Amino acid sequence: MSTHDSVTNPAHQLPDVSQLVVGVLGGTGDQGRGLAYRLAKAGQQVVIGSRTAERAEASAAELGLGVRGADNATTARESDIVIVAVPWDGHAATLSALREELAGKIVVDCVNPLGFDKQGAYALKPEEGSAAQQAAALLPDSRVTAAFHHLSAVLLQDESLAEIDTDVMVLGEDREATDTVQALAARIPGMRGVFAGRLRNAHQVESLVANLISVNRRYKAHAGLRVTDV
Amino acid sequence: MSTHDSVTNPAHQLPDVSQLVVGVLGGTGDQGRGLAYRLAKAGQQVVIGSRTAERAEASAAELGLGVRGADNATTARESDIVIVAVPWDGHAATLSALREELAGKIVVDCVNPLGFDKQGAYALKPEEGSAAQQAAALLPDSRVTAAFHHLSAVLLQDESLAEIDTDVMVLGEDREATDTVQALAARIPGMRGVFAGRLRNAHQVESLVANLISVNRRYKAHAGLRVTDV
Lengths: 230, 230
Fold this sequence. Notes:
- Chains A, B: It comes from Kitasatospora kazusensis.
- Chains A, B: Residues 22-113 form the Pyrroline-5-carboxylate reductase catalytic N-terminal domain.
- The structure is a homodimer.
- Chain A is an alpha/beta fold.
- The first copy, chain A, has one domain: NAD(P)-binding Rossmann-like Domain (Rossmann fold, 3-Layer(aba) Sandwich), CATH 3.40.50.
- Chain A is built from 9 helices and 11 strands.
- Chain A has helices at 2-8, 30-41, 53-63, 72-78, 88-97, 131-138, 153-157, 175-186, 202-219, and strands at 21-25, 45-50, 68-71, 81-84, 106-109, 114-117, 120-123, 143-146, 166-172, 191-195, 224-228.
- In chain A, the strands form 2 sheets. Chain A has an 8-stranded mixed β-sheet with strand order 3-2-1-4-5-8-9-10. A two-stranded antiparallel ribbon of chain A has the order 6-7.
- Chain A is globular.
- The A-B interface holds A 7-8, 10, 119-123, 152, 155, 165-166, 169, 171, 194-198, 200-201, 203-205, 207-208, 210-215, 218-230 and B 7-8, 10, 119-123, 152, 155, 165-166, 169, 171, 194-198, 200-201, 203-205, 207-208, 210-215, 218-230.
- Strand 11 (224-228) of chain A pairs antiparallel with strand 11 (224-228) of chain B, so a sheet runs across the interface.
């Protein structure tokens, strides 16, 4: 078992990311604020980004834990890793405007392009294949990954919960970048970062959120996912 | 907690399926044989279907456990629930030919339309949206569901394993049919059947297998999925 564990433990030999600054674009939304809270609580330096610095600063002050707020461009410039948690509607425009600020950075796209109607949620079909592939197309000088799709914003923001019982599927082309994002996910108690393929396989990971929404309705749950045998 | 459990336990109030006959089209392939083995071991009556009765009978004899073999049409006719585990290549042709035999039956599509190249697996895009939606289009008189996508054929067939550590996402439009398939999944020790949406959200469930293949390569694993908080 011990030799097997050393192979399969996804936290094995991941880099130390504790000194990296994490920016969260869309950090005033539920998902972004929840991630910022969990990462800051784990000891990470976090900057929340929004269209206006004032709004970001107000959200950051509410969160405490040393979280700072800034406009999106400043957030991108001052961060080592930048999580993109903006609404799908604003995804392309936000990223296009930040191409220079995001150059050389690890970008973590966690956007789920979904539509909603009377029957619930359904997958949208981005022209590039997925939100993550759109990010990669718009940010050719960044190291684009995809992760943090399947987290419940409710659970992330629930201060009474010490741990979040879920794995984080991490996708990307660049091993060093995906290792870094896996390590970042593992900073949050209860979470593991699990490598789950290249960006061309991001669409199904993003749109699986539609299924988790169905699970949540049926079972009155805040569903997450664990990858077994890893 | 107890009232909450009664809501969230996916096995709650599911029908008794122990007397239903389960047919497995493509039952001589790895996935089909593995499912037939697990269901028969759980006490279910199972018929393996193949293009030729001889081949199905040979596979059934190898499995033992009372499993019978027959051609696909006979299998469909004699079963209450029919699992479709044929290769994607033969999916449309096989189902088109069985429209009459499958009328009124619960059909469980577990086919994953994937392509493979040097970089691994990737999602194909069926014209109907997914294999399950193709099945629904070809079988208007059947009750089509989708399930059993994320199971490792290796683990299913490993007789040394008493339990399979995974949940089974079950999709469909017809509550009675999805409840029945959830109950069938729960017959296999370790598994739960979890309702996970309508057939229009089947594509991402089917193609997520491409990601699990990446997980398996990276971690030398046979990955499955658990839905948390359910």
